[in-house]
Amino acid sequence: MRILVVEDSKVVSRILQHLIAQELGCEVDFAEDFTSAKKLLASHDYFVAITDLNLPDAQEGEIVKQVLAQQIPCIVLTGSLDSKQRQRLLQLGIVDYILKENRFSYEYAVRLVKRLQRNKHVKVLVADDSVVSRKFVRSLLEQHLYQVIEADDGLSALDVLNTQEDIQLLITDYNMPGLDGFGLILKVRERFTREEMAIIGLSSDDDQSLSARFIKNGANDFLKKPFVHEEFHCRVLNTLDSLDMVRRLWEQANLDYLTEVYNRRYFFSRFEPQLSTLNQKQTAFSVGLLDIDFFKKVNDTYGHDIGDEVLIEFAQRLKQFFGQHFVVARFGGEEFVVAFKGLNGSKAFTLLDKFRANLAASPIKTSDGELNITTSIGVASLTGDSLDNLIQRADKALYDAKESGRNLVCIDS
């Protein structure tokens, strides 16, 4: 990633140089005037440009038009700005403007670049039956580099959600034929939690209760049409920042800090509530309990850092092998569990034995060289008992695998 900074103040340039190096660590080119900036723009591709509005040889903001003409996102720095200039800049399509007041202003500019970097990977679905409104929202989002997908009504939006993965934000109008914004949100919330997707409602109606009704139905925020550019961007950024924070909290609570697979807490909270239904419907459900053979010897011989590398790689192989269809969790230490919903013990045994053989045949690469690692596994399937009892039976089978020589899969009888 390469950034262009156009600023005639050496003090401001030094501050930005320091902050960018500290926060972004990317390549930065500096220009003091319009002439030198044009030369740099002609010879490099830039991710974003941070430009002073008034330069010694271009007092009317010509640099902004030059940057935007080359389809480079532009963040404008200025010592002063009246309402007409502000409106003109926003209509040109800049990312944002920042008044040069103190160090916080420059920190904000650098944070904005980081947000743009993140936004490249954020998918946003816009549902609105008005082509004009939809295209306007799309243009605002694309100024901040979001990936934008359009739907012309609620039913089309549901079709998109069925086919597109990783949509993080839904922006939906209220009045739409077929399925309105409220109905769309209710259906979306049946499938996606607040940790998985954020929703912003839009409407031009004068009904003052709309904002509360949107939020009660499951939206994160509401915006009344017509809205100004800045309010829209602030609402979107705040909503996505909140989504990121909620996700981080959820991950801290439910993912293992080292291996990033699920933890014991998540495993029990997910499957304990399901167990009575699985028993009543006689749905097949099995668990495999895995233990890395002689893991203490790895730590004693090579040190705990190498031991951590082995745990991380072992967990990644489990995720690659099972994670698409089944749940992988770390129970603690070198012990992991795989939950096989829909599989009986015999089928789970077959898959786990294949994983065991693959692991034994493929050494784990560490910073201290390759290590031959094997695993012992115990399998048990649900027979009307509790989750604790099911795990205990898998643990007994795991003990049998160890006692029988390790690098084995044993199934609970």
Give me a quick take on this structure:
This protein is of the alpha/beta class and 413 residues long. Helices cover 49% and strands 22% of the residues. Helix 1 packs across helix 5 (103-119), helix 7 runs parallel beside helix 8 and helix 13 (295-302) packs across helix 14.
Could you walk me through the main structural features you see in this protein, from its secondary elements to its overall organization?
It is an enzyme of class 2 (transferase). It holds the Pfam family Response_reg. Its EC number is 2.7.7.65. The protein has about 425 residues and is α/β, with parallel strands linked by helices. The protein folds into three domains: about 1-115, Response regulator (Rossmann fold), CATH 3.40.50.2300; about 120-255, Response regulator (Rossmann fold); about 260-410, Alpha-Beta Plaits. The chain contains 16 helices and 18 strands. The strands form four sheets. A six-stranded mixed beta sheet has the order 11-13-14-12-17-18. Strand 13 (about 325-330) and strand 14 (about 335-340) form a beta hairpin. The relative contact order is 0.06. The mean pLDDT is about 95.
Name the shape in a single word. Answer: flat
Overall average residue pLDDT: 93
Distance between the termini: 58 Å
Order of the strands making up the biggest sheet: 11-13-14-12-17-18
Number of strands: 18
% residues in beta strands: 15-25%
What does the largest sheet look like? Answer: 6 strands, mixed
Low-confidence stretches: none
